[in-house]
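User: For my dataset I need records formatted as: sequence, then structure tokens, nothing else. Please produce one.
Assistant:
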Amino acid sequence: MTTPLPTVRTIAELRAQVADWRRQGLRIAMVPTMGALHEGHLTLVRRGRELADRVLASVFVNPTQFGPNEDFGRYPRDEAGDAAKLAAAGCDLLYAPGMDQIYPQGFTTSIDVGPVTRRWEGEFRPGHFNGVATVVTKLLMQAQPDIACFGEKDYQQLQTIKRLVADLDIAVRIEGVPTVREADGLAMSSRNAYLTAEQRSRAAGLNRVLRTIAGRLAEDPGTVVAACEWGRGELLAGGFDAVDYLAVVDAANLEPLERVDRPGRILAVARIGGVRLLDNAAVGAPSA
């Protein structure tokens, strides 16, 4: 039987535990999450365990990264289930702060990371990355870990956080962890639970299209425009209702590429029903 996971809910409690680990000379990894945990999150915990002596995870559904017509109210919440999964994965501490610990009365600060946030998700979800950057900064400053692990599935988010940490001199190493996928290639996501059985069967087409584009560009790096046009058509023909974007970008600054002559990423979001499915694939030489 797994021992219940120690849980703290205030900054003071969190810092007291971190300070105790520091006195013991221990290295600390953090996994920030919004809960509704799946194997992708648990892989981050296990990666943190490989890199550090102690792993703490946070669960906080952050309202400032949701738009007015998005799913903040119905976003799945299951702290007890999340805590059990974290404990089984080797997590040492759960930080589950209340709203008053993250956005106390009178809080007004918002962090804008700049150009890396402007396109792609930034265009379709105005204000989203300001919310992400602000809450991640708060969590990192509250916990002050040595390492923080984030998944590559949200690739623009990962690059935003790397830029944020570099620009603000936050003393933490950001560790990107490869996307964890279902057997058919669908990237694991808490929002996959919103898909009907029929939608779920079509959803794996997103990753198949991205892998095909990556293969085409490996053979002919100058066919970016044609490959992306083919991909959009293939997704719509395969049962997706809309393609918000499908683009090949520089792996670091996320600016569009017309030719794959450096490390790149294919970024895509496609919709089935009311569900936005987000995925990416590497192209060109491996990126840092």
